[in-house]
Design brief:
alpha/beta, 7 helices, globular, single chain, 8-stranded parallel beta barrel, TIM Barrel
Length: 219
C-alpha cells in the first residue's frame, strides 16, 4: 500500500501549489479561529477549487457544530473531515450520516492509556490520526510541533488505516514511519518558517523524505 502524505494548515495559493506539485496526497485546511493556520470560508473556497481533483481535500475542525460544518461543506466540499476536538463516537456517527463524508478522528497520545478510546472510534471512523497530546494550557489541539513517543504504537493492531502526526519534519519522518508502521504522515508546523507560515522548500523536503523512506522499506 502506498504511503499517504498530508500537508496540513495550508493558507496560500503558492504553498498549496507547492504541496500539489510535490505530490501531496492530502491537503488540509484548518477551520478553527484560534489557530494561526485558520482559513476563512472564502479562502477555503478558493483553495478548494485549486486542489480539486489533484489531492484529497481535508477540512480540519475542532468540536464544530452542524451550522459550521454546513458552511464548510458549501465552501470547500471536503473529501474528508478531520475531527480534532473531543468529539464523541456518537458525534462522529452523526457527522458521517448528515454530511456523507468520511471522517478521520485525531487521537491525542502521551501515554499508553490514551489508546483506550480506540475501540469506540474505530467502530465509526474511516481513519485514525495519532497526534501528540497538547499541554494543559494549550489553546489549540494540534500544530504545536511536539512529537509523542512513537513506540506506543509499535505493537498496535488496528484494522483501520492510521496516520501519525505531531512534531514531524524532514529529518525524523523516516524514523516515525519505521517505528509506528503508519500508512500515512501528517505535517504542519514541521514545514513552517514561523507559526502558520509554510515554507515551500521545507514542504518539498518533507515529501521527498517521506517517499524515500517508503522506497527503502519495500526493498
Amino acid at each position: 500500500m502506498s504511503l499517504l502524505v498530508k500537508i496540513c494548515g495550508l493558507t496560500t495559493r503558492e504553498t498549496l501549489q507547492t504541496a500539489l506539485e510535490a505530490g501531496a496526497d492530502m491537503v488540509g485546511f484548518v477551520f478553527f479561529p484560534p489557530s494561526p493556520r485558520h482559513v476563512s470560508l472564502e479562502l477555503g473556497r478558493e483553495l478548494g477549487r485549486q486542489a480539486k481533483g489533484r489531492a484529497l481535500k481535508v477540512a480540519l475542525t475542532v468540536d464544530a457544530d452542524d451550522a459550521s460544518l454546513d458552511n464548510i461543506m458549501d465552501a470547500l466540499s471536503p473529501d474528508i473531515f478531520q475531527l480534532h476536538g473531543k468529539e464523541s463516537v456518537a458525534r462522529l456517527r452523526d457527522i458521517k450520516q448528515r454530511f456523507g463524508r468520511p471522517v478521520m478522528k485525531a487521537v491525542p497520545v502521551e501515554v499508553a492509556a490514551d489508546l483506550a478510546v480506540l475501540p469506540g472510534y474505530t467502530a465509526v471512523a474511516d481513519r485514525i490520526l495519532f497526534d501528540a497530546r497538547p499541554p494543559k494550557d494549550a489553546t489549540r489541539p494540534g500544530g504545536l510541533g511536539t512529537p509523542f513517543d512513537w513506540r506506543l504504537l509499535g505493537n498496535l493492531e488496528l484494522k483501520l488505516p492510521y496516520m501519525v502526526s505531531g512534531g514531524l519534519h524532514a529529518q525524523n519522518v523516516a524514523e516515525a514511519l519505521r517505528v509506528t508502521g503508519a500508512g500515512g504522515v501528517d505535517v504542519s508546523s514541521g514545514v513552517e518558517s514561523a507559526p502558520g507560515v509554510k515554507d515551500p522548500e521545507m514542504i518539498k523536503a518533507f515529501i521527498r523524505a517521506a517517499r524515500a523512506s517508503q522506497e527503502l522499506s519495500v526493498r
